[in-house]
Amino acid sequence: MPDFSYEINAKAKGYKYICGVDEAGRGPLAGPVCAAAVILPENEVIEGLNDSKKLSEKKREALYDIIVKKAIAYCVAFGTLEEIEKYNILNATYLAMNRAIDGLGIKADFALIDGNRIPNDIKIACETVVKGDSKSASIAAASILAKVTRDRLLVEYDKKYPQYNFKKHKGYGTKEHYEAIKEHGVCEVHRLSFLKNVIK
Fold it and tell me: What total number of domains does the chain contain?
C-alpha cells in the first residue's frame, strides 16, 4: 500500500511542499489525457488509498471526495485532444502534468511523478517513481483525481454520442468500442492518430 516514505525523504532534503503527480487516459481512443497534482498533509492516512486502477469505480468516487477535502492543495488539468494530435500523447501528457503542478493553490517545491520519465519543461525539482501510484500516498491520490475526473468527462461525452457507449469503456479500445467505430465512424472526440488502422 502507498505510504509517505518518498515524501518524507524529500522533506529530509529540505523541500517543504511535495506534490504527487499522475495521469489518466494515455491509452484510450477518445478524449483528452488528464493529470493531477496533489499535496497531502504529512502522514495524513486516507483509508483505502491505492493505485486508482486497483479500485472499483464506486471506491474511487468516494476517495475523490475525501482527497479533495483533506489535500493541502490539488489541481487537475488536461492535455487536449488537439494537443495529442499535434504533439503526440507523451508530450500532451507532459503538458497536462505541468499544468496541474503550476495550478496548485500552494506552490509545490518538489514533485513525485509516477513512471520513469521527467516531463519536459518542469519548473521544480522532481523524482520519478516507477509504479508510484502503489508506493506514494501523494501519487496514489493524484491517480484517483485524474482517473475520476477523466471518467466523469467521458460520461458527459456519452450523453452527446450514445452510440459509442463511452460511459461503459471510458474511451478505451474495447471490442465494443471498435465495433461502434466501424459501424458509426468516428466523432469529434476520437483521437484520429490512434485509429489510423481502423479508419483507412
Answer: 1
CATH number of the domain that 54 lies in?
3.30.420.10
Of 132, 63, 72, give the one whose Cα is nearest residue 104. Answer: 72
Q: Please answer whether residues 20 and 137 qualify as being in contact, where contact means their C-beta atoms are separated by less than 8 angstroms.
A: yes
Tell me the three cell numbers of residue 63: 476517495
pTM, 2 dp: 0.96
Mean pLDDT of the chain: 96
| Banded model confidence at residue 200, pLDDT cuts 50, 70, 90 | low
Asked if 2 and 140 count as a contact pair (C-beta separation under 8 A), the reply is: yes
**Residue 144, domain extent:** 5-150
Residue that has been written with the C-alpha cell 496514489 in this structure: 140
Q: Where are the alpha helices (DSSP H) in 5-80?
A: 5-12, 57-70
Distance CA 109, CA 25 (A): 26
